[in-house]
Amino acid sequence: MKFIPYALCIGALLIASKHSHAQNASETANHSHNQATSTAVSDAPKTDPLRDAGVVQTERVAALSAIAKSASISIAAATLSEIEACDACLARNDLATILAVQPAADLKALAPTLVSKAIESAKDSTKDAANTSASRFVKAACVRAIFALPENERPIEAAAWKPVTLKTTAVPGKMSWDPKEFIVSPNSIVAIEMSNPDSMQHNMLVCSPGSLSEIGVAADKLGEGAIGKQRQYVPDSPKVLEIMGLTAPNATGVLWFIAPAKTGTYPLVCTYPGHWRMMNGKLKVQ
Ligand SMILES: [Cu+2]
Fold first, then answer.
1. Could you tell me the pLDDT band of residue 45, with boundaries at 50, 70 and 90?
2. Which of 23, 95, 158, 241 has the fewest CB atoms within 10 Å of its CB?
């Protein structure tokens, strides 16, 4: 009886009996379905665990672990090099978060590199009035990783860095933050912590002055397609300067960045579809 499927398969090729034809047709359909699926997958925008916004952290960490393993380096070192390579990719803050939670021993081993990258990038950032250079993300990630070390284990250079922590809360049921306006100095090191006691997810983006509605409309448009969820509703725009990814209910989102060099009012916005009109705020750089 074991050879019946095989016999039917041969039969399908030789005899146009209804049964074998149907089976053959369904096999063909199956094959073409498989092909269609694989074509669709390769045609569809692929999720890049190292670059996209909407990737679960475990997948990102798995991709970074694989890189670390093949290069015989720590995950911390692999993550730092991905942060540099990522430029202004949508995953930049997630990668910085992963770097900051690496074992203290690995961060300590990496500390001289973190310090030199932070200082090297700081030089660049003074030239970068438009605040679009990738070096700012690298600096923020390096500074954040150093501050993840216990104070007595940080390199002495860190004593000169004074991060400003801004705390806010997503007000339950109000589609708003409290507080929603902040003042920082140009080029200062800023850490925003958003606690989310609301029942829905929220993110927070820092955008170029005057771009609130442009980014909001783009986010709502993203919300209409599957790609939106994949990108966590973060428009891929140079006007998106900083990204705190979607923060789950009862979690706290953290975003470290170097404040823009240029003074002005930078909109803060949640780009979860439909939120931006109410859930926005201001980062005043002055
Ligand atoms: Cu929101």
1. low
2. 23
